[in-house]
């Protein structure tokens, strides 16, 4: 029996995809999964296909999309190697799915249970306590027609507060040992925790924050630059994912 995931309305490139397929737009959330895939491609030669949509046209609210992700938000990852195809929604779940699917050596994860727990803590921290605030700052500060000072101030303060939490971790304020990455022993290791966090925090300027606001987080600023230098990050945030 034909499965219900794809219909006549589903774009051909989505329903005819053979392996992993990503439906995305190069927003902070889209970039998380774009980065993970580009990193995996460099290490393992992982392949996938991509459909770029424009969320301003509300494509993500159409029936074909909601069948794959009832939440109606990008990005969505579909694993067509499963029968029926297996859709994954929510960026952190997508990163963790890709870790299992493609990262057999845990290059972007951890084999040690405690380090793995650390990575999950920071991944969840940003997913639950970072992105929602900075997303609302973008909404009320940039996109809302009505400018509500209380809302802008509230989400600006909360965004800076959670940046401060990242700064505590990276500076080693309480551990005595500064670190390069959010999770892992010693100086830490670049992992899904960083991949899930970086696309938002690196966009502080887009969110209307000023240099003087973020200068109080020197370790965070260095972490932003350190990750920006990665070839996979450059590809994932560049031309390749721009709508033609
Ligand atoms: N919690 C979701 C958030 C996804 C999300 O908010 N995506 C935004 C783009 S950054 C979106 O699709 N916005 C369009 C809309 O809300 O309709 C995740 O982590 O995947």
Automatic annotation (TrEMBL):
InterPro entries: Glutathione-S-Trfase_C-like (IPR010987), Glutathione-S-Trfase_C_sf (IPR036282), Glutathione_S-Trfase (IPR040079), Glutathione_S-Trfase_N (IPR004045), GST_C (IPR004046), Thioredoxin-like_sf (IPR036249). It comes from Phyllosticta citribraziliensis. Transmembrane segments: none annotated. Gene3D superfamilies: 1.20.1050.10, Glutaredoxin. Belongs to the GST superfamily. Coiled coil: none annotated. SUPFAM superfamilies: GST C-terminal domain-like (SSF47616), Thioredoxin-like (SSF52833). It holds the Pfam family GST_N_2. This is Glutathione S-transferase. Residues 112-244 form the GST C-terminal domain. It comes from the Eukaryota.
